[in-house]
Design a protein that fits this description.
The protein has about 120 residues and is α+β, with helices and mostly antiparallel strands. The protein has helices at about 60-80, 85-95, 100-115; strands spanning about 5, 10-15, 20, 30, 55. Strands 2-1-5 form a three-stranded mixed β-sheet, with no helix packed on it. Strand 3 and strand 4 (about 30) form a beta hairpin. The longest helix is centred in the middle third of the chain and has 25 residues, at about 60-80. It binds zinc ion (3 copies). One zinc ion binds near residues 16 and 40.
């Protein structure tokens, strides 16, 4: 028995034997059915809604990892320009009020824009 995952990196289905590497893990972990929470192998999931998990296949896993790494580096770079750490520190020390609201919106917008790239 095997099951399928959908590789979102390249957009295709792939066959899995029961264990797969998940984002950032060093060891493969057992695939579980999202709707029922039992391992995908060895149980009948014909009654489960949509047990297909989005997961980069072994071939594209490295691509995905590199992409995540690039995004992280870019965030680090922009962090300095934006002075995120200073702003977060100021946010902590500010009392509730319009100034704090404006600043937290500023930071949230910035984080949101970073995640979109
Ligand atoms: Zn699997
Ligand atoms: Zn299931
Ligand atoms: Zn793939």
């Amino acid at each position: 028995m095997s099951h399928q995952h959908f590789c979102h990196v390249a957009g295709h289905y792939w066959e899995c034997e029961g264990k797969a590497l998940r984002g950032g893990d060093a060891e493969p972990s057992v695939c579980v059915c999202l709707p029922c929470g039992r391992p995908l192998e060895g149980f009948d999931h014909s009654g489960c809604d949509d047990p297909v998990e989005l997961l980069a296949c072994p071939e594209h896993m490295e691509e995905e990892r590199q992409h995540v790494e690039e995004v992280r580096k870019e965030i680090d770079r922009h962090r300095g320009e934006f002075q995120l750490d200073e702003k977060l520190a100021r946010l902590k020390s500010l009392a509730e009020g319009p100034e704090k609201d404006a600043l937290s919106k500023d930071v949230a917008d910035w984080l949101f824009r970073r995640l979109q790239r």
